[in-house]
Amino acid sequence: MEKEIFTMDQMAELDNFTIMHLAAPIIVASVLIEWYVGVRKKRNYYDKRDFMAAVSIGLGSIILGAMLKVTLFYISLVIYNAVPWAIPRSWWGFVLAFVLVDLCRYWAHRISHEQRFWWATHVTHHSSEKMNFSVSFRTSWTQHIKFLFFLPVPFLGFDPLTFFVCHQLAVLYQFWVHTELVRKLPAPIEYIFVTPSHHRVHHGSNPKYIDKNYGSTFIFWDRLFGTFQEEEERPTYGLTKPVNSYNPVYLVFHEWVDIWRDLLHARSFREAWDILFKPPGAIVTAHQREREELAAQQPDAPEVAPALQVATAIPAEMELGEQTGPPENRQVGLK
Question: Side-chain half-sphere of 135: how many Cα atoms within 13 Å?
Answer without folding.
Answer: 28
